[in-house]
Amino acid sequence: MRPAPRTRTFYWHPSRFCWVQGLLPASLWGGTQTPTLEPMQARCLRYHRSRLTTLNNCPTPQLRRRAREGLAILTRHDTRCAMSQATEKLWTIGALLQWTSDFFTRNNIDEPRLSAEMLLSHALGCNRMALYTRYEHVPTTEQTTAFRELVKRRRENTPVAYLIGRTSFFSFDLAVSPAVLIPRPDTETLVEQVIRIVRQIPGWETPNILDVGTGSGCIAIALAKSLPGAQLVACDVSPDALTIALANAQSLGVADRIRFLQGDLFAPLAQPPTPGAFHVIAANPPYIATGQLRELMPQVRDHEPTLALDGGPDGLDFYRRIGGEASDFLIAGGLLIVETAFNQTEQVRQLFQANTQLGDLRIVTDAAGHPRCVLARKIGG
Ligand SMILES: C[S@@+](CC[C@H](N)C(=O)[O-])C[C@H]1O[C@@H](n2cnc3c(N)ncnc32)[C@H](O)[C@@H]1O
User: Fold this and answer.
1) Which of 111, 141, 156 is the last residue before a domain boundary?
2) Could you tell me if the CB of 315 is within 6 A of ligand 1?
3) Would you say residue 56 lies in a domain?
4) How remote is the CA of residue 310 from the centroid of ligand 1, in Å?
5) What is the domain count for the chain?
6) Does ligand 1 have an atom closer than 6 angstroms to the CB of 213?
7) How many whole angstroms separate alpha carbon 235 and alpha carbon 270?
8) Looking at the domain assignment, is residue 166 inside a domain?
9) 195/281 same-domain check
10) Of 118 and 368, the one with more pLDDT
C-alpha cells in the first residue's frame, strides 16, 4: 500500500491532545485504511502512546478523557494493522482461533484462548465444542466479518459477556447487557449460603426472600431455581437492569415467583415497612469507593455501569443504609446477608453491629478462602 502523503510539521492536535499528527498519516486519525508507517513514524507513535498512557493517570478528568480518546484511536490502529497483515491466509476455524488467541495474548487481553473461542462460537452460532469438531472448516465471509468486529471490540476491552450478550452463573445461562453488572462467580458464595441456611431451618420451606440491587437478577433467579417453595421480590433503581432481570427470569421459568420492583433500596416496598415481610434479605450492593473507580481494570471501569459499582466516598454507603433499614423488613430470626469486597467484611460487620435489632454476626469466606459475605440475624427468632 502506498504511504499516505505526510508533512514534516509537528503540531498540537487540538482535540486528541497530542502533537504528532503532522508527521503521521492522516488515515491513522480517522481513516478506514490501514496506514503503513515508516520507522520514524513508528518511533513517533511509540512516544505518543507512552505520553498518552502517562496522561491517562493524571488527576484532571478532562486530560484523562482526552488521553483515553487518543489511546482508543491507537488501539483501533493496532487492530487494523494486525488484521490487514493477516488477510492473505486461508482462514479456517483453527487458524482464526490461533491467530486471535495470539493477538489477544500480545495485547494483554484476559483469557486469550477462551475469549477467542467464545467470540468465534458466537459469530458462527455454534457452541465451543463444535469449533473443535470443525477445525478445518472455513467460515463464510459474513461470519468472518462479524468475528473481526467482535475481536476489535474485545481488543478495546469490551467484556466478552457484553459482546455475546450472555454469561453463566450458578450453572445456568443469563442474558447481560451494559445496563447490568456481569455476575461474578464470587456471588455464588452468597447464593450457596442462603440455600444452605434456608434448607436447615424448620418452617422455612416457603420463605419470602428480598434481593436488593438485583442487576441481571442472578441472585434472585438462582435462589428461585434452588428453593422451589420460595417467593421473591427483586428491586433495583435501574429500570434497564430490571428489564434484563425480568427477561432472564422468564427464560429460566421462574418469573411467576419473582416480583420485580423499581426504586431506591427499600423504597419500593410497603412504607411503613410490613414487619416480618421477609425471611431473608440478600444484597450485593455497589461497593467500590468513588475515588478508586478510575483505578479499576479498563474492562470494568469503561464498560460496566458506574451505578452498579460506586459505593460512595468509602465504598460503604449502601452497607450503612442496608444495615440501618433491613431489620425493619425481616421476621424475627430472619437472615440479612450481603456480599462485600474481601477487605470490607470487618467494617461491614461493625456497621451491622451498630443496629441493636441485628445479632449473630458472621463472616463467610469464598471458595478461594477470602472473606466475602457478612451475615446477621434479626434478634428475637
Ligand atoms: C454490584 S451490582 C449487583 C448486581 C447483581 N445483584 C449481582 O450480584 O451481579 C449492584 C446493583 O445495585 C443497583 N443499585 C445501585 N444503586 C441502587 C439503589 N440506590 N437502589 C437499588 N439498587 C441500586 C445497581 O443498578 C446494580 O444493579
Assistant:
1) 156
2) no
3) yes
4) 10
5) 3
6) yes
7) 13
8) no
9) yes
10) 118
Distance from Cα 241 to the centre of ligand 1, integer Å? 9
The C-alpha R_g of the chain, in whole angstroms, comes to 25
CB atoms inside a 10 Å sphere around CB 58: 11
pTM: 0.79
326 conformational bin, left if phi > 0, alpha if psi -120 to 50, beta if neither:
alpha
Percent of the chain predicted with pLDDT > 90:
73
Measured from the Cβ of residue 11, the count of other Cβ atoms closer than 10 Å reads 12
The residues near 272 (Cβ < 8 Å, ≥ 6 apart) are none
For residue 284, the CA-to-ligand 1 centroid distance in Å is: 7
In ligand 1, the atom with minimum distance to the C-alpha of 180 is 27
Domain CATH code at residue 345:
3.40.50.150
Write out 219-268 in H/E/C secondary structure.
HHHHHHHHCCCCEEEEEECCHHHHHHHHHHHHHCCCHHHEEEEECCCCCC
CB 24 within 8 A of CB 16: no
User: Is 311 near ligand 1, meaning CB less than 6 Å away?
Assistant: no
Domain of residue 116 covers 93-156
pLDDT tens per residue across span 82-110: 666 555 568 999 999 999 999 999 999 99
Ligand 1 centroid to residue 305 C-alpha, Å: 10
Nearest one of 337, 42, 50, 88 to 99, comparing CA atoms: 88
Over range 195-199, report the average pLDDT: 98
First to last CA, the chain: 77
Q: Identify the pLDDT of residue 80.
A: 65
